[in-house]
Amino acid sequence: MTIRLLIADDQELIRTGLRLFLQTQPDLQVVGEAADGREALAQAAALRPDVVLMDIRMPRMDGVEATSRLTASGASSRVLILTTYDLDEYVFGALRAGASGFLLKDASRDRLLEAIRVVHAGEALLSPSVTRRLIQDYATRTEPLRPPTRLLAALTPRERETLLLVARGLSNPEIAAHLVVTEATVKSHIGSVFAKLQLRDRAQAVVFAYENGVVHPGGPG
């Protein structure tokens, strides 16, 4: 299966470098480029890429806004934020906007390839450092959040436990070991959680869990 890519970055040299490198991979195809957020939205609508490599700081419309509008449109394209800036406002803004991953531009080529394939597969690329910072961010809240009882009532006890483990940044193999089940069972639980809570991927699951008080930083959830 070929993964169709759209590169959105305001620097032509970066777009060209990424395109030349990515096209050396037999399973990747760069179908388009965009120099700003508005162009990225237009290109995504016309080309329907599987994954959009989205820069943050771009003219006319930044990557966070473009990501928000793209995911709100119902497009199937997944967004991998690729940026120079490792700042909280960008990390959290991108995740809340619906991005499926966040990667710095100084990452290795192998890490970039892995990120693209992971995001395309429906997983989320959340590094442990990003997950820790997300936890710390919600730990600073002064008012406790009330979980959305109606939504959570639809989850089985095992599905809720799975959501808590996803929110803590555990991988599928780690969740399987914790619950003493197979990875296939974990994938089934996660798929059910996503469907019932109307979530796209792990990134949205993590944000949902902390924003709604499903899991509490430093506690068992």
UniProtKB/TrEMBL annotation:
SUPFAM superfamilies on file: C-terminal effector domain of the bipartite response regulators, CheY-like
InterPro entries: CheY-like_superfamily, NreC/VraR/RcsB-like_REC, Sig_transdc_resp-reg_C-effctor, Sig_transdc_resp-reg_receiver, Tscrpt_reg_LuxR_C, WalR-like
Residue numbers of 4-aspartylphosphate PTMs: D55
Domain Response regulatory: 4-120
Pfam (any one): Response_reg
Superkingdom classification of source: Bacteria
Keywords (A to Z) from UniProt: DNA-binding, Phosphoprotein, Transcription, Transcription regulation
Signal peptide range: none
Domain HTH luxR-type: residue ranges: 148-213
Protein's name in the database: Response regulator transcription factor
Native species: Streptomyces millisiae
Lineage of origin: Bacteria, Bacillati, Actinomycetota, Actinomycetes, Kitasatosporales
